[in-house]
Amino acid sequence: MGPTYASCGFEPDGLIGRTINHIAGVANQVKEKWNYLVHYEFYLKATNVQIGISKREDSRAVASVIANYMDEKYALSKKISRLQREAKQQGIDPSTMPTFEAIYEQSLARNRQARSIMTSHTPKFEKLVGMTSVVDIIKQDAARYDRYLAIKMIAASSNLTPTDKLITESTKVDLKKDYMHVVRLASKHSMPVSSLYQKIEALQKIHHQMIFNQLKKEYPILIGYDQLLNEHRTTSGYKREQINRALFTKASEIIGNKPLYERLQRDLPKLSISLTTRMKEHGKNRGINR
Q1: Cα–Cα dist 120/191, whole Å
Q2: What is the pTM of this model?
């Protein structure tokens, strides 16, 4: 497994570009500065939105905060793009570039700032007409910092028995997107990357098992499906084929149970994917056998 750069904001900000292109028809003028929110009143006028004086003042103040953030985000994005371009030209991993560490820390600081903005200004964001996409971008950056803090807590923990807090924090982490944070924090705590990775993975598995156990109490059909899976792992030949058919039947029933399947999609996405995959594979096998 290798590092991914989306975890620390190392990704194209296409959503922002599209939003800018939409606002007030001033894309070419504003895009380079990323401070189009300063022109918020112009946007309201252009879209025939009327607001009171006090609301206008609040909107301008919040817009200024967001504008400054977006300026910094754009400047950092240019550095990231340059880093990736130069690394590609040299045929090396971007994380080995001399400037990577400084850019990573700047990206982390940006995400921390996004979290601070969301904490301080979320109620006021509701008053910003037509700025949902921009607020969503800041939310995404804030969520990246929350995931970093979760990994930091897990890395610093020396508890041999997982606590409820650690289990809960582990659910915020995306081990693929957040791999760079895992690498950095493992290094800071003088532990192998694989150890921290496996620690997070183990906590997430405990959480998933807790959810699955609860769902089995509410939906007994999952008990039968789980039992069939366990049998499937230890059988072969004709009996295995029989279990496969039984698993298909159970999978069909689970997917057909809308409330249950929606819970699985939300809380146990890997299980929901495996159910749909089993359905597809069964359909292919039936086609082949005809």
Answers
A1: 35
A2: 0.71
